[in-house]
Specification:
heterodimer, A: 382 residues, alpha/beta, nine-stranded mixed beta sheet, B: 96 residues, alpha+beta, Arc Repressor Mutant, subunit A, three-stranded antiparallel beta sheet, 3 helices, 40% helix, binds iron/sulfur cluster
């Protein structure tokens, strides 16, 4: 076993708020959203940026919810830049206009990642549950480019919008995006309760891989396309967050410091809060960050596996959801005893053909949260 | 689009090269990308300003390092190809 050597983190996700005017049914925020009154203040965020830079962090991804819902966003960007962090804003764009974009650029913002929902405007607006969201986003994307800011277009893909992947790529080229990020829905939080309606088929995933490879060749040197094969359709898991407590962390709106944005789903785990714990102590020594750092915590088959320092056993939150406990081998791995059941589950959910989606709301319906145990392999199938 | 002598490579708008005080290293970064280029790579990247052609960049490097221009050319193409594949270097009219 390699001892858990603590290197300084590279980047972090600052969830400035959970508030958002959109209601995407695959939102990665937890079902229990943090209310506006519990959010860190401007001064508290600035302290976080300064401490993070001192700790060795190089990038901050300003996210949410919708980060532009924070009135102090421009000041926060300026403070993060002054602390020496590279700033990236992750936004839906619907609250932005040219004046705000110019202010953000003047404050030192380096890059904006803007999400769209689909290539088809009507379906995009349906998923976002926001009238005219799509047209508004395209207009904002053009303003971002004309203000001279770098743009990544992000789209979460799933069974419903994958047939229009070509159209999505065309939009990214047309907008002058430097990068297109094709992200498959990650089944935590809201996406988990909507999994059956979002799950793509193996054929869809393979055709996405081919479409993107062809586009990447055509656009080499002009537009970068990042595409990661979705977990459930793979044979080996990804190193979630580059390994637990190894590269990244997340600060939730209320100051909770998390090893990954879904970590609050793990029962019995308590998280350090930047209001009471210094960032360095939280990163180096807290129970949450040391729990799955390195490889010493692993059981078989990971413990003796040659890939244990490559993927670190996959995603802990996914292991919890699917296998029933967070220290299990991620069932995405074909060495997990649950892997075959996962493949069967994918097929069953695709075959269900369901299109009923629960949109993100301030509170999930009690039915949704009560049933969240049923989305695993152990409880669902055994 | 492949990179050639007349290409004018430049850093992507999202990419920055800076000295990292905590690690005592150069870092080239854009969202989702972090590289720690060595001194030679830093010299190459610093010359990629969108004005100079690949040919003039490698001529300058050959003078600076007093090395044969062909070897420098090949190494530079290799490096820039890799960085272009990662999206941190762009080398045509691009999506401006
Ligand atoms: S995924 Fe959609 S609902 Fe969730 S924060 Fe982003 S834009 Fe808002
Ligand atoms: S057994 Fe564990 S360490 Fe090995 S490939 Fe699978 S998840 Fe990774």
């Amino acid at each position: 076993m390699t001892p858990a050597r603590v290197e300084p983190p590279l980047a972090f996700l600052a969830e400035l708020t959970h508030r958002c005017p959109l209601q995407c049914p695959y939102c990665s925020n937890p079902l229990e959203l943090v209310g506006g009154r519990a959010e860190l203040s401007t001064a508290e965020w600035i302290t976080v940026f300064e401490d993070a830079a001192r700790l060795g962090v190089m990038q901050v991804h300003l996210s949410g919810g919708e980060p532009t819902a924070r009135r102090d966003l421009v000041g926060l960007v300026r403070a993060a830049e002054q602390a020496g962090l590279y700033t990236n804003l992750i936004t839906s764009g619907v609250l932005l206009d040219r004046r705000k974009i110019d202010d953000l650029a003047a404050a030192g913002l380096r890059h904006i990642q803007l999400s769209i929902q689909d290539a088809d405007p009507a379906e995009a607006d349906r998923i976002a549950a926001y009238p005219q969201a799509h047209l508004k986003k395209l207009a904002v994307a053009r303003e971002i480019r004309s203000a001279g800011l770098a743009l990544t277009l992000n789209v979460v893909v799933h069974r419903r919008n994958l047939p229009r992947l070509d159209g999505i790529i065309d939009i990214a080229v047309d907008l002058g995006a430097e990068r297109l990020e094709v992200a498959h829905a990650q089944y935590h939080g809201w996406a988990l309760i909507n999994r059956a309606a979002l799950m793509p088929s193996q054929d869809q995933v393979q055709s996405a891989v081919a479409t993107i490879a062809a586009a990447a060749r055509r656009l080499h040197g002009r537009m970068q396309i990042d595409h990661v094969v979705p977990d459930y359709h793979a044979r080996r898991p990804k190193a979630c967050m580059g390994g637990w407590g190894r590269r990244f962390f997340v600060i939730a709106p209320d100051g909770a410091m998390l090893p990954c944005h879904a970590a609050t789903s793990i029962p019995g785990m308590s998280f350090p809060n930047v209001r009471t714990t210094a960032l360095k102590a939280a990163w180096d020594d807290s129970a949450a960050f040391t729990a799955f750092r390195g490889t010493a915590w692993m059981a078989e088959p990971c413990r003796s596996c040659e890939f244990r320092d490559v993927d670190f056993g996959g995603c802990r939150c996914q292991a919890l959801t699917l296998a029933g406990h967070a220290a299990a081998t991620d069932p995405v791995c074909d060495r997990s005893p649950l892997h075959d059941k996962l493949q069967a589950l994918v097929e069953r959910e695709v075959a269900s053909g369901t299109s009923s989606l629960q949109l993100r709301r301030p509170k999930p319906s009690s039915r949704a949260s009560d049933r969240s145990r049923e989305y695993g392999l152990v409880t669902l199938i055994d | 689009m492949s990179i050639e002598g007349s290409s004018k490579p430049r850093l992507a708008d999202s990419a920055t090269l800076r000295w990292d005080k905590v690690r005592d290293k150069w870092v080239l970064q854009s969202p989702e990308r972090l590289f720690f280029p060595d001194d030679v790579a830093v010299s190459v990247i610093s010359l990629c300003d969108g004005q100079r052609t690949l040919q003039s960049i490698t001529d300058e490097l050959a003078r600076e390092f007093d090395a044969p221009a062909t070897a420098i050319y090949d190494d530079t193409v290799e490096l820039l190809k890799g960085l272009a594949a990662e999206g941190v270097i762009v080398h045509d009219a691009g999506p401006r």
